[in-house]
Amino acid sequence: MIKVLILSAYDIWQGAAKAAYRLHQGLQRRPGVESWMLVNKKYSSDPAVIGPQSSLDLALSQSRARLDQFPLAFYTQKQTEYFSPQWLPETLARTVRRLNPDVVNVHWTQGGFMKIETLAQLRKPVAMTLHDLWPLTGGCHYSRGCDKYLSHCGACPQLGSSRERDLAYRNWRRKQKSWQNLDLTLVPLSSWLREQVEKSPLLGGYPLRLIPNGIDLETYAPVDKAEAKKILGLSPERPVILFGASGAKRKGFHHLQAALARLGQTPWRERAQLLIFGNQSPGEGEDLGFPTRHLGFLQDDLSLRLAYAGADVFVAPSEEDNLPNTVVEAFACGTPAVAFRIGGLPDLVDHGENGYLAAPFSAEDLAKGIGDVLTQSPRFGRQARQKAVACFSQDLQARRYGELFSELASSNA
């Protein structure tokens, strides 16, 4: 029996944390693997997820993310959505030694959960799953076109800094100093991120294993679209354009707006409707040119499944992205996607088969893609579901990780 400890800032919260918990669920069903999670903030009732153990620990966990951002107060011109210094002292390595796993799987540990130097103190074989660029940079999670992290960081444009030896430079050097000669295997989620790792002076020399995120294909599965639309309060006769909202500019709502303006000049204006969900509701109160329903933040799987399954096309107009859960979820529910040809999206969307990859960042091509997919949505949707079953099942993900963990544990025996 291989004991695996997954490190993640959260468990069932959105994004990378949700992906980590889904892996944990898949591993729990896999023979020969005992899976545990260690988190900074626990949302689930899963007894195999270990969160803060005392009221003091809980209070500290709630403030760590805010405290970790303190060094950014000195950068008054910063233009970043999220930047992770990871400088706060913690006792994570001591806790890992007490739990004594055979393998540690590091996921998204930002928000002050794990200090940069702690990675070298775990004293176990480590598989680091890369959800974004942060492990390769001086603190940003997506680079906005800056490639300084491929040599060194400094004079960081996201910090609005002109100083070479700024916070980004110091963080990058901290990683360079402490992340050498580790028992470390890297697990990028997409071909794009694998390519970035291979070019990285920080991590480029470590072994790589490309393993995409997985999803429960029974929880996320197609349902009758007309019925789903009725439940959601939508017109069953009108095709639905779906967008998963986020406050992050890189998620590209402004590109969707521009595409909708062009689509509104076509016959689709009288035929289609728009559905938006997410932790923010961009466009709420605005005339987006189409009948629009805002669902707000959806956390439970049933509501998300209805939203995806009731849509005829899911639009993911991200400027930067790795392997977004939203597209995997849409595919599993039989809904094709339209996205820009950037990052890890080409690993998901097969152009002209289960969706459309538009030229970055052309509103005209994005609008064309939405129209083309709506025209062929049933066929594209079937092929999207087939892609999810073939490539992104939770069981397949757990099997691949199980094989990797077995190799790592054996090499350390």
Question: How many E strands?
Answer: 12
Which blocks of ≥5 consecutive residues have pLDDT under 50? none
Adjacency order of strands in the biggest sheet: 3-2-1-4-5-6
Strand content: 15-25%
| Span of the ends, CA to CA | 13 Å
Within the CATH hierarchy, at the fold level, what is the topology of the largest domain?
A: Rossmann fold
The portion of residues assigned to helices is 25-40%
CATH superfamily (homologous) name of the largest domain: Glycogen Phosphorylase B
Tell me the Rg in angstroms.
22 Å
* CATH class placement of the largest domain: Alpha Beta
Number of domains: 2
What oligomeric state best describes the polypeptide chains here? single chain
Mean pLDDT: 94
What is the N-to-C succession of helices and strands?
EHEEHHEEHEHHEHEEHEHEHEHHH
Structural class: alpha/beta
User: Which outline best applies?
Assistant: globular
Output the keywords:
Rossmann fold; alpha/beta; single chain; 413 residues; 13 helices; globular; six-stranded parallel beta sheet
Give a quick rundown of the structure.
The chain is an alpha/beta fold and 413 residues long. The protein is built from 13 helices and twelve strands.
